[in-house]
Design a protein that fits this description.
8-stranded antiparallel β-barrel, 6-stranded antiparallel sheet, 294 residues
């Protein structure tokens, strides 16, 4: 009898506290599991709680991405129930990237000259810089604005004849092009693990501005510029190194074709409504960059 009283003396407070915990809060997980507990605190990454098990009070935590929602004072009918929906994803993202690209430039299909081939091939590989700003409507879908700048340059083994007012002479040229793209984007993402890897894809429709020029001895031999529409598709993976910063790698493609342009030669401007050989602006590339989350 004495032993029973001593056991009751120590067990009753534990059972009472256990009942109190059990009757307070409720956590519902994404796997449809319900946990009766006492929520202690919540951080940006996890929810900490205590619960009763086998006449003991234990403490545990769950990552936010595994929690669907939780309720305070769920089992007390006389008090209002407070529902909290856990959002375990960032709302905005800024990406800045730098990488290489390969442009599928083409020459005339009707017996192109060696000079045409060399000049076109020299503008295929280039440097790509891009930036995007995104806002997310929910955990998986977002809208944003994407921009990119692609620069190529080459010094072909071609001599052009120039006239300096006194005599005609041969000179080397610098041939380069730049492509600027900007447009709205639709983004889908997948979060396989909280605060870790992020897989995403974006589709964008926008405007392309293309310019190409050849220079010799500081003067323009010719200058081409024009605008067209384009489509950008990008696939990537982010690795979060902290709550608000990450590193990213992506593969992108830009599809576009310039059918009309403005041409300036040494004799002046000339508008061309339709180019006999449309300029193919399509390119593929890979980039690395920084990510900023909020």
């Amino acid at each position: 009898m004495k032993k029973f009283l001593w056991q009751s003396f120590f067990t009753f407070p534990i059972l009472l506290f256990s009942f109190t915990l059990h009757s307070q809060d409720l956590i519902k997980t994404t796997s449809k599991k319900e946990i009766n507990c006492k929520i202690l605190k919540r951080t940006d990454d996890s929810v900490f709680y205590s619960y009763s098990y086998d006449n003991q009070i234990l403490k545990a935590s769950l990552p936010c991405d595994s929690i669907l929602e939780y309720y305070f004072k769920y089992y007390i009918d006389s008090l209002p129930t407070q529902k909290v929906v856990v959002k375990s994803y960032y709302r905005s993202r800024i990406a800045i990237d730098l990488g290489m690209g390969y442009r599928f430039a083409e020459t005339s299909s009707d017996n192109p000259t060696d000079n045409q081939k060399e000049m076109a091939n020299g503008l295929q590989w280039g440097l790509n810089a891009s930036a995007s700003c995104e806002l997310y409507l929910n955990k998986y879908i977002g809208l944003g604005v994407k921009s990119s700048f692609f620069q190529t340059w080459d010094k072909p083994n071609i001599n052009f004849l120039s006239y300096n007012g006194i005599s005609t002479f041969e000179e080397k040229i610098l041939h380069k092009s730049s492509t600027v793209y900007i447009g709205p984007a639709f983004i889908c993402r997948f979060l396989p693990s909280y605060n870790k890897d992020i897989l995403w894809a974006s589709l964008s429709f926008g405007l392309i501005n293309y310019s190409e020029k050849a220079e010799g001895m500081g003067s323009h031999l010719f200058y081409i510029t024009g605008n067209t529409v384009g489509v950008s598709l990008e696939l990537g993976r982010d690795i979060r190194v902290s709550k608000k910063i990450g590193l990213g790698i992506s593969a992108y493609s830009l599809f576009g074709r310039l059918n009309s342009y403005e041409f300036k030669g040494q004799s002046g401007y000339k508008n061309v409504e339709k180019w006999e050989f449309p300029e193919n602006l399509t390119r593929l590339g890979v980039t690395l960059g920084l990510r900023f989350y909020n």
